[in-house]
Amino acid sequence: MLQAQEPTLDDFQQLEGCNEVLNVTRPDIVRSVHEAYFAVGVDCVETNTFGANHSALGEYDISGRVHELSAAGARLARESADAFTARDGRPRWVLGSMGPGTKLPTLGHIGYATIRDGFQANAEGLIEGGADALLVETTQDLLQTKASVIGARHAMRQLGVDVPVLVSMAFETTGTMLLGSEIGAALTALEPLGIDMIGLNCSTGPAEMTEHLRHLSRHSRVPLLCMPNAGLPILTKDGAHFPLDSEGLADAQETFVREYGLSLVGGCCGTTPEHLRQVVERVRGLTPPARDPRPEPGAASLYQSVPFRQDTSYLAIGERTNANGSKKFREAMLEACWDDCVEIAREQIREGAHMLDLCVDYVGRDGVADMAELAGRLATASTLPIVLDSTE
Questions:
Q1: What confidence tens digit (pLDDT) does each residue in 301-315 have?
Q2: Percentage of the chain with pLDDT > 90?
Q3: Is 293 within the bounds of a domain?
Q4: Percent of residues in the chain assigned helix, strand, coil, to nearest 5
Q5: Do 249 and 213 have their domain in common?
Q6: Which helix (H) or strand (E) holds 71?
Q7: For range 87-111, the mean pLDDT
Q8: Edge-first strand listing for the sheet containing 355-358
């Protein structure tokens, strides 16, 4: 919708494709998109700040503008929301969009502290610009998701305010997130961060989201959201085409509200104002059924959740990746033979461990550096949760 209004290269300040710059140079274009959706009856819109984060703006060498462009995007959405509320008295809300960026911290593309602090600047700008809630969306890497949520918490503490934090994950057609995380692992890892809502958006259409929503409905303690694409994209000579029509999206969202008790529904890629008009007509006035979630306590790795449910007589924690309990592991660590350390972990996996203990405490060593090195390696070399074991 932004591109359809043919912004010029000058509008982009010579940064072609950086849509967030339009918040400053062409507020009329951005405002028109918000108005198109409010006009069909939606309760809330997202800010034009999906890429207003350290790594995405860093691609244009303007990472120092995260706060500026975030605040400008939130102000535009706030102005539109308030204008529509003034007409009929019905509240409208602004969701501050915090996109995933372009780098995956789990794979070492960017440091955790760097990405966390970038998301803090993103969140501070959104809150100062008038966002009612922060939407950590289209998340693909659980470590990136955590960095976003913690960055948002730091922003709220810095500003002395408290707004809801919503998390929306992107699951591929494989059934997992980009790095292989299952829905159970995601819920186990993210819910304890104190988020206010959890759900899915992007990557697929509603048909592919059904089983994930069923799991969340059964186990999540917090309310649920869903913003699917208009089906799986089909590549044509004119670009991506999204095949799901507005009636199909409305059918799916009504079903999700009725069957899974969703509290927030909308649309992502390919969903036009007409799609949302029909969704509004179908779900407005519906009362989601009360859910009776049965939380499943457990521990999660990047890939899977291991419930604290013992089918055997004990839960086995592999202790050989412990500098105090294993001479072989300690010597490999002291010599920085990291591959040997990982192989010791894998031996325990093959022997049936349910989790891996990791202890690097040793006199004279930099425990922080050793823990960062080995925890990072084990996180992707094993599908088992890691028990971080330290006297520090």
A1: 999 998 887 666 788
A2: 93
A3: no
A4: 45, 15, 40
A5: yes
A6: helix 66-88
A7: 96
A8: 317-318, 355-358, 386-388
The Cα 269–Cα 256 span in angstroms is 18
Q: Residues 301, 308, 261, CA angle at the centre, nearest 5°?
A: 80
**Whether residue 25 is found in the same domain as residue 74:** yes
pLDDT of residue 238: 81
117 within domain boundaries: yes
Largest CA distance in the chain: 73
Q: Is the model's pLDDT at 271 over the cut of 90? A: yes
Query: What is the number of domains present in the chain?
Result: 2
Q: How far apart are CA 244 and CA 353, in angstroms?
A: 45
Angle in degrees, CA 195, 200, 206, rounded to 5: 155
Q: Are residues 222 and 325 in the same domain?
A: no
The CATH number covering residue 202 comes to 3.20.20.330
Mean pLDDT confidence for 315-336? 94
pLDDT category at 268 given cuts 50, 70, 90 is very high
Sign of CA dihedral 40, 43, 46, 47: positive
For residue 344, what are the domain limits?
310-388
* Residues 257 and 353 both lie in one domain: no
Name the token pair of 76: 């535009």
Rounded Cα distance between 36 and 278, Å, is 14
Taking only the tens place, the pLDDT of each residue in 199-227 is: 999 999 999 999 999 999 999 999 999 99
Rounded to the nearest 10 degrees, how much is the dihedral formed by the CA atoms of 113, 116, 121, 122?
150
The answer to whether residue 298 sits within a structural domain is no
From residue 153, alpha-carbon distances to 47, 130, 167 in Å are 19, 16, 13
- DSSP summary character for residue 321: S
**Per-residue confidence at 237, pLDDT binned at 50, 70, 90?**
confident
**DSSP states of 195-247 as a string?**
-SEEEEESSS-GGGGHHHHHHHHHH-SS-EEEE--SSS-EEETTEEE----HH
Q: Is residue 288 part of a domain?
A: no
Q: Does residue 257 contact residue 225 with C-beta atoms inside 8 Å? A: no
| Mean pLDDT on 342-363 | 94
Average pLDDT of the residues of the chain: 95
